[in-house]
Every structure is written in C-alpha cells, then in structure tokens.
Amino acid sequence: MERLQKVISECGVASRRKAEELIKDGKVKVNGKVVREMGIKVSSEDYIEVNGKGLTQSTKKYYLLYKPREVISSASDDKGRKTVVDLIKTNDRIYPIGRLDYDTTGIILLTNDGELSNHLTHPSHNIEKEYLAKVKGFFKKEDAISLSNGIILEGKKTKPALFKMDRYDKKTDSSYVKVVITEGRNHQVKNMFKALNYDVQKLKRERYAFLDLSGLKSGEYRQLSIKEVKQLYSLK
Questions:
Q1: Is residue 169 among the annotated active site residues?
Q2: 7 lies in which domain range?
Q3: Are 193 and 135 within one domain?
Q4: DSSP summary character for residue 111
Q5: Per-residue pLDDT of the chain in tens (236 residues, 90 and over written 9)
Q6: Burial class (CB in 10 A: 0-12, 13-18, 19+), 123
Q7: How many whole angstroms separate alpha carbon 154 and alpha carbon 145?
Q8: Are 145 and 196 in a shared domain?
Q9: Catalytic residue (one of 46, 77, 101, 212)
Q10: pTM for this prediction
Q11: Does 203 share its domain with 221?
C-alpha cells in the first residue's frame, strides 16, 4: 500500500506537491469515488483517476547495469546520444540513480522507485562507491594518504576516502588505483586526482554499496532481487 499522492507522482502525472493540490481540489477519484483525504493509501488493484483520466500503475522495477563507455547517464539526451535507459528492455519509465561520466564504465542502478533513489543519494547515508582508476605515472604513497584524508575541492573538503595503489604498469607508465568514496560530487574522483596532477585515463565503478558486477559483461544488466532492494533500503 502506498500514499495516493506518491502513486500519482510516480506515474508521472504531477509532482507529489501538485498531486496533493489535485486531491484537495477534488480532482482525484479512487474506484469511482472522489477522494480528498491526504493520508489515504492505495494498492495496485485500485483504479485511480486524475482529472477524469485513468492512471496505469506500474510495478516498481530495479535494475543493475554494467554501463559501457560513451553512454549518457540519463533517461534521455537532446543530442541523440545513447543513454543507460536505452540499454534496458522495458516499457516502464525508469531513470538512473546518480550519474557516471560519459567515458566512465561500471555499475549503475536504474529504477522507477523515487523513494529508493532519494534514500540512496541522500548525502547523510554515506553509501560506498568503489572505483578502479587508471592514472598516468606512478601513484605516490604520500598522495594516496592526502587524498584518503580529504582535500579541498571547490572550497569544500572531501570526506575521508580510500585511495590505494593496486598495481603499476612500467610499460605504459600507468598506475591502477582502488578508490572508495561515500560522496557523489560531480566528477569527484577525476577532480581529486587532477588536484594532485594525475591524469585519469580510465575509470570504472566496480561496486555500489554491497552490489558488484559479478556475472555481467559491459552493456549487460539484471534485475535486483527483493532481498537486495530491502538491503538497499536498510543502508544508512
């Protein structure tokens, strides 16, 4: 059972606040009867009308995608570029939770559950995101310590993180660095390396909270289990 205004919002008819106004104005019916109560809850079996038009309630869907390079982390793109939503075969109106850069690969979640999206992107919950970064040059231990302790980016210090050398490739003069952050600032990992004069050549997100890319190839996806969704809701 979900609150009526939330269901209206998730169907894409109006924002939750606008849905509340529609209910107050008597423009919403449930099973043929006008409803003005704000706290009423409905199920997927109830028939809802807004301004005389019936709503089709979509069941909540949750996907884990292995995002390839050169794919946009949004539901649509005005330049006609491929988006993460294009890679998933569904008629449901889904959208990504958070973002990965155009040239960044790895795990990204998509859903039509706005409540879960808000929960996971709330800064106070400190959801861990783990990356593997390929940077030019030898990654110094003192720089790993500095980045792990936090540096100033755009006037604000980054939260404590983990930057750890995974391996160094002498042939290409490149370091592979494990990174774990709990923030979601725009281009954060790249900007942190850039602040210490490291050029990020490749970046892959390998883990989101307890979820990883096991069993998936680039461009592939799977649906999350009920257990996994409950675990995501429990993260704080």
A1: no
A2: 2-54
A3: yes
A4: E
A5: 788 988 888 776 778 889 999 999 999 999 999 999 888 999 878 899 999 998 876 678 999 999 999 999 998 898 999 999 999 999 888 999 999 999 999 999 999 888 888 889 888 888 999 999 999 999 999 999 999 999 999 999 999 999 999 999 999 999 999 999 999 889 999 999 999 999 999 999 999 999 999 999 999 999 999 999 999 999 97
A6: exposed
A7: 20
A8: yes
A9: 101
A10: 0.79
A11: no
